[in-house]
Amino acid sequence: MDKFSIHRVPLYPTIRQTQPTPTNTQQSFSAHLQEATNQQELKVSKHANERIKERNIAITEQEWRVVSDKVFEAHSKGVKQPLVLMDQAALIVSAKNATVITAMDRTEAKQQLFTNIDGTIVL
């Protein structure tokens, strides 16, 4: 009779796990923090910039910071295209692209119908 041997195979194969190479988390965190901080600026589209100039809308640096903060806060809550109502202006912003799409003064905004917005920020 021929000789044969039986080898036992484990039911659960052993998987070798490789240890991830340690990264310098402090450097990584600082880089991410710096990157996140730099992205907290709104851009103004060419169209919006023209509207701001021709309608003589004056927005201070402090007001821009407040608008930027609120737009990024709204974006973090899922808002993609907010209408920003300020004392002197109404802005439509693409929160996804962090860009002001158009601007008008408040008196003009009273007579407008706003479409394709999914949130409103009142300042």
Per-chain topology:
Layout: H1 25-38, E1 43-44, H2 46-54, H3 61-76, E2 82-85, E3 89-94, E4 99-105, H4 106-109, E5 119-122
Overview of this structure, please?
By secondary structure, this protein is an alpha/beta fold. 35% of the residues lie in helices and 19% in strands. The chain has helices at residues 25-38, 46-54, 61-76, 106-109, and strands at residues 43-44, 82-85, 89-94, 99-105, 119-122. A 5-stranded mixed beta sheet has the order 1-4-3-2-5. A hairpin with a 4-residue loop joins strand 3 and strand 4 (99-105).
Low-pLDDT ranges: none
Distance between the termini: 93 Å
Describe the main β-sheet briefly. 5 strands, mixed
Range of helix content = 25-40%
What kind of oligomer do you see?
Answer: single chain
Q: Which radius of gyration do the C-alpha atoms yield?
A: 27 Å
Percent of residues in beta strands?
15-25%
Q: Quickly give the structural class.
A: alpha/beta
